[in-house]
Amino acid sequence: MKAVSMYKCEKCGRVYETESEAEKCENLHVKPIDVKLPWPWGASDCGHYCKGFPYRVVVKFENNRYALYDFKWESTVNGANKELADEWYRRKESEFK
Questions:
Q1: Do 25 and 40 belong to one domain?
Q2: Residue 55 pLDDT level (bands cut at 50, 70, 90)
């Protein structure tokens, strides 16, 4: 029997054969540092789809890059997406601190 060493990215959980590959993956993950609405609140016409949430947000990251995110779904107390959202948030919560 042979022991096998694997290395895991602490940000996303992906497993690599070498430590340098895992470190490279960890360095690719950046933390969000600011969130802005790309236009004044209520300026978008998304009907009832957004349910009061902003339709889009712009996120600034620690490496000074930006990303635009669109509203996809809402997590409600007993909604169908609650478990999915809660699990995602639990795994990612440490990255937002």
A1: no
A2: confident
